[in-house]
Amino acid sequence: MSVLAYDLGAGSGRAILGHLNDRGIETREIHRFKNEPVKIGDRMHWDILRLHHEILQGLTLIKQQGEVPESLGIDSWGVDFGLLGSNGELLGNPYHYRDTQFNGVMDTVCQELTAKRVFERTGIQFLPFNTLYQLTALKRSASPLLREAERFLMIPDLLRYFLTGEAVNEFTNATTTQLYNPVLGQWDRELLAHIGVSDQWFGDVVLPGSTVGQLRSSICNDIGLASIPILAVAEHDTGSAVVAVPATETSFAYLSCGTWSLMGTELDQPVISAESMELNFTNEGGAGGTYRLLKNIMGLWILQECMRQWEREGQGISYGSLLAKAEIAPAFASLFDPDDVLFLPAGNMTERIRQYCQKTGQRVPEDQGSIARAILESLALKYRRVLEWTEQLSEKTFGGLHMVGGGIQNELLCQWTANSIGKPVWAGPAEGSAIGNMAVQWIARGTFKDIWEARRAIRDSFPVSEYEPQDRSAWAEAYERFLRITALSPGTETGSEV
C-alpha cells in the first residue's frame, strides 16, 4: 500500500512516496523543490501558486513512474493563511510570517484584552506573527483583502482546496492561529469579534485522518491520473513530526529540529495555567486527539541566515566545511539566547550576534567557525532550559530526548545537545514530518490500528542514532554561565532584545 506525502517547510518542499510491505515502511523522494519567499516593495509573501505548481509536478512524476498512491496528504508550517473571495478565488498571495507589517501588533492586542485572557482562551504561545495578530494588522490597516474575504484557509487547507475544490479547516494547524479555543473545541468567536473578523469565514474543524475530497477531475485529466482521495493529515508539520517519533514509552520528550526547533511532549489535555503562560509554552493540537505541550525555539534559521549572508558577500561555504570550522573553534566563547527578538527578522544575522555578545561583555565572534559554534552551543544550551521547563509543566521526567527532522543531519548539534542535557539523544528519522504524514494516512485507512502501532513500524523501519552525553562538567559550567547571560534563570522567558 502506497501513500503520497507533501511536506512543505519554510525553505523547501518535498513529495515523498511511502510503501508499506512485509519489510516495513520504505520511502522514496519523488520531487524536491525550493520554497522561497518573494518580497514586493515592503511586503513579504509566500509564492503559493509556485507551491501548487510543484505539487502538480510531483503528481506528474508519480504518473511517469507508474505509481498509483492510495491517498495524498499535505503538511506545512503554521500560522500563515490565504483568503478566498465570493467567487472562490484566492485574494492575493499569502503574507509571510516574517513580514514587518505585523510588528508590534501582539503587544497592542494583549494590552486591550490582557495576555491572560488570550492565553486562557487559546493556550497558545505568544509569538508576534501568530494569525491572530496578522489578521488584526490587516483589519486595522483597512486592508481591501478583508473587505472581499469570505473564507479563511491555512496554507495546507489552501493547497488542498486547489486540488479538490473543498474548503476545509484542519485541527492541528487551526490551533496554531491563537484563534482556536481547545476548551470549547471550536474557533473562539470572542477573539474574532474583538479584532472585527467574521466568524463565518471559519469552517468546521476536521481531525487528522479525515477524507476531505478527491483530486479534481480537471487535474486527473491533465496528468492522466485516476482520482486520488485527499486526506487531512496532521497538517502542522510539527504535528506530523511528533507522530513519527519512534518512542517506546507513552511519556517522551521530542525536539523537531529544522529552520525552527520545537521541543515538548505529547499529552491528552492542554496545560493552560499561569505557569505555562509565564514560560510562554504552547498547546497545539496533535494526531489522535492529543495535544503537544511545546515551545518554539528559533532553531537553525539563525545559522541558515548567516550562510545566506556569507553567500551574498562572496564568502559562501558548504555546510560540512562550516561545521568542521565550528568544531575546532574555541568552546563557549560567545553565548546568546536564540529566542531574543533580535534574531527573528531576516537580515544581517552575524552583526546581530556580535552586537549581543558585545552588549553582554563576551568575546565578539569574528570568523565563520566561531559564529557557527556560538549558534550551535547556544541552541544546545537553550534546549536544556526548555527541556527542564517541559518536565516542570508536564510533571514528568524524561530519560532522554528524541530528535527528528532535517536538523538531525547536523551530528555536531545532536552530540552537543546530549552533552548539554546530560541525557542520551535518539536522532531519527530525518524526514519525520513526511513519515508522520504517511502514518496518519495509513491509520485512517485502517492499516495501522493506532498511533502506537505506527510508531512501532517507524522504529523498526528507520535507523536511529544514539548520542551519549560527554564532557558533562564543562557543559554544566557553560549552562550556568548561559543562564546568567540570558537572564533565563530561575524560570522565566524574557523574549526581549538585549
Automatic annotation (TrEMBL):
Residues 3-243 form the Carbohydrate kinase FGGY N-terminal domain. Coiled coil: none annotated. Signal peptide: none annotated. The keyword Cell membrane does not apply. It holds the Pfam family FGGY_N. SUPFAM superfamilies: Actin-like ATPase domain (SSF53067). PANTHER family: L-RHAMNULOKINASE (PTHR10196:SF93), SUGAR KINASE (PTHR10196). Belongs to the FGGY kinase family. This is Rhamnulokinase.
